[in-house]
Fold this protein.
Amino acid sequence: MGTGTAKIKYRKQEWEVNSGMTVRAAIEKVGLDPYSVLALRNKKLINDQTIIEPGDEIKLVNVISGG
Amino acid sequence: MKCTKCGGVAVINMPQHRLKLCAEHFKEWVLSMVQRTIKRYRMFGPKDRILVAVSGGKDSLSLWDILIRLGYQTEGLYINLGITHENYSDVSQEYAEAFAAAHDAPLHIVNVRETYGQGIPDLAHTGRGKRMCSVCGLVKRHIMNRIAYEGGYAAIATGHNLDDEVAVLLQNTLHWQGGYLKRQAPVLPSTHPRLARKVKPLCHLYERETAAYALVQGIAFVEQECPYSVNAKTIFYKQILNQLERRSPGTKMQFYLGFLRAKEEGLFCLDEPEKELTWNTCRKCGQPTTAGDLCAFCRLWEKQKHPA
């Protein structure tokens, strides 16, 4: 695993994070609650202990609805 | 993280069940969980025709998918509320229609603006003192009852998940709403032949699990939130409950299941006997009402036509 960065996308926001950290750590780093989102890589659901690889694009999906 | 059942890569961790599951085992687990819930609360059987209320969101479309896979007879109902902000209602309808088409499943659509003359935001705006969510709830209940009665369905199934139920439970407990606590249940019985029985087959699943189910099944759902729910109290309560859950996995489940158990054991038996409801028939729409000769739904539209 090399070093590099990855993108985290959530709704209309986008962040760059370092690879090598877990998805959960990245979610917390961008200021979101890991309980409120699920992560997708290449449209596939991944668990939050997955290590982020360089060049990854992780899409976060909100799971809390109101109303 | 490995799947507890097969050792493959887990896609979800559910510490409250001490389970980590891969996509395939998670799908199986969700189906068996919902089947058990349907049986446990005697919601409906394989011969019953069920009307699934769909919003285009993750919960209701997951519910419809699960009921189809379990072999139940279902038809969908989408109510277009006329919310034009970011085209919310029309976009949501497209997701419901796409799901129905992909599954070759019947979908009934009621467009509030086309049927009654105004969408929910305009109606709530003119109905003084009525908040958006209460107007929306009233309109949806009326239409669901009407369609269920006209179509002769055995029950209306809604996508309420455990987080929805626990948020309501917390809110009702904080305000000691005894009446609401007494009525909150996975099955809301019909109190009149024209008022449908309502069932919540996802009530034992966390919201995170219904969303994960939609994602692993590849169900496309509307991700944007209703623009009027942004500051909804429900979301605030859900966030608080998730903080508790993080500290102590299973808190939400224990709170809800403990509540249902306590009800079964008679904790919420009020001293006063249940009042017998006196039903009138609404002179405009024919639906039953306990107030006067116009039901709350028709009064809402009358107020809009003839503001005092």
About this structure: The longest strand of chain B covers residues 73-80.
